[in-house]
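Record type: monomer structure entry
Structure origin: computed from sequence
Chain ID: A
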Amino acid sequence: MRLGKGKSLFAVTASLTLLAGLTACGGNSGKEPAASPNNTEKSAAESGASGSQAPAGETVKIKFAGWGDPSEKEVFTKLLKGFEEKNPTIKVEYLHIPADYVGKMNTILAGGDAPDVFYVPDGDFGRWVSQGLLHPIQDFVDASSLDTGDMWESGLLRYRYDGAVNGQGPLYALPKDIGPTVLYYNKDLFTKMNVPFPSADTPMTFEQLLDTAKKLTIEENGKVKQYGMGPIWWEGFVFGNGGAFLTDDRREFVGNGEAAVSALQFAADLANVHKVVPNAAALKDMNDSQMFQTGRLAMMITGRWMVPEFRKLGFDWDVAPLPVNKWAGWSGSVGIGIYGKTKHLEAAYKLVEYLGGPEGQKEQSLMGFAIPSFKSMAATDVFLQPGQKPEHAEVFIKAAENQVPGPWTNLPNAKWFDMLSQGLAPMWDGKKSAADVLNELKPKIDAAIKEGNPALFK
């Protein structure tokens, strides 16, 4: 799981849950789900007897689609070869889509002849499952040896769907990974400027973040040469301040509450008032990752997926909890699901279980960019990788324990979140207060929630 690079303070966060500009959320048509869990879910035995499986001993050919850079492609090529060796009657064709994965998959899915197994970004899960494009796998999982009790609950729940909302009901995918977000910091800059390193155990408060960022910001001739803090991933600031975006029943937007408003105003002020975070203009020629790698940014927020690239850097760095008052924030994820119309359901599930199970998780974790879906594996050298950066890799584990799925995953139709993300622009520009912007957005967002998710209001 990798987030898009170059996220700025003004970016629509929902579009950054994936590498290469994948869209984390996009509204569906607002229509009723093509198939509800009640009429699509079959038991593993019943599904296998449906006549769609090949006769015993006959080779089954299935297709698998995903994205990823060359290193991820190499690992999955290796995994698929290992799967075929363990399952000699199943052959897998690997469809690697390195760019615009969601856009291309939308076209493929609309054509009605999709790969049997494919990556399911958590932000697109709701739209795809509500349109009947994914097959439920709960009965297969229940009949398997997978220890779901050892898996991150926040990783599993985002791939559940009950016909109205995400996060409830049967499973429709297994997490390929979970991507908690943390604070990366340049230890050499901290040492040079005599600033204490952030704690690996206790998150900085907003006040401590501001104080630390000020000490690490260098201005020369009216221009900032070095910024103390990178662009703010604002959803985590809201969660860390005790705020929320939706009511518990998901029917109403509450992001204009006091806790959310104060968190977002603080985030905007870091750039507009205190000048310790680069604004959109400052990020025009160099994104936050590039600024961090070239020593122009002392701290930045991102996920585990940046570890392999940052291990190549010529300076010392480490990770700490998100600076959001307490352990909180959101994690991203990509799932592995089965096409709703697959003709090879049992073979497809075997592949899903292999990639989402211990063997697949181990190989992905060894690459360095993912935390395993299994908690017990995350606590071993497979993930912690002692002797390699970051020194405090355990920060990712505690982050995974405390972070929740991004708000764009809460409802099948996420148009409401797109509206929120885009509507915050006047606040980031310093033209309007957070309170004014959010109060103006509330009735529009409430209407979008109701219009886009009619099953929720039945």
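Annotation 1: The domain at 181-330+410-457 is CATH 3.40.190.10 (D-Maltodextrin-Binding Protein; domain 2).
Annotation 2: The chain has two domains: 26-179+332-388, 181-330+410-457.
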